[in-house]
Amino acid sequence: MLNPIQDIIVAIQNALDLYSIDIKVNIQVQLANQAKLGQFQSNVAMLLSKPLQKSPIDIANELSTILSENDIFVDVVASKPGFLNFSLKKEYFDDKLNELIRDPRLGIPVTQEPKTVVIDYSSPNIAKHMHIGHLRSTIIGDAITRLLTYCGDYVIRQNHIGDWGTQFGMLIEHLVENNFDPNAIDLNNAYQTAKKRFDSEPEFAKKAKDRVVALQSHESQTLDIWKNLVKASEAHFSDIYQSLGVLLDEADIRAESFYNPKLKPLVEQLDQKGLCHTDDGAKVIYLDNFKDRHGKHLPLIIQKSDGGFLYATTDLAALDFRIHELQADRIIYVVDARQEQHFAMVFEAAKHIGWRQDNPELNAILFGMVLGDNGKPYKTREGTTVPLASLIEEATQKAIEMVKSRHPDWSNDQISPIAKAIAIGGLKYADLANDKIKNYAFSFDRMLALDGNTAPYLQNAYVRIQSILRKAKLTHAEAAAGNILIKSDIETDLACHLVQFPKEIFAIRDSLALHRLCHYLYKLASLYHQFYEHHPILSASPEEKSSRLSLSILTANILKQGLNILGIETIDFM
Question: In what order do the strands lie in the sheet with 297-303?
Answer without folding.
Answer: 277-279, 282-291, 297-303
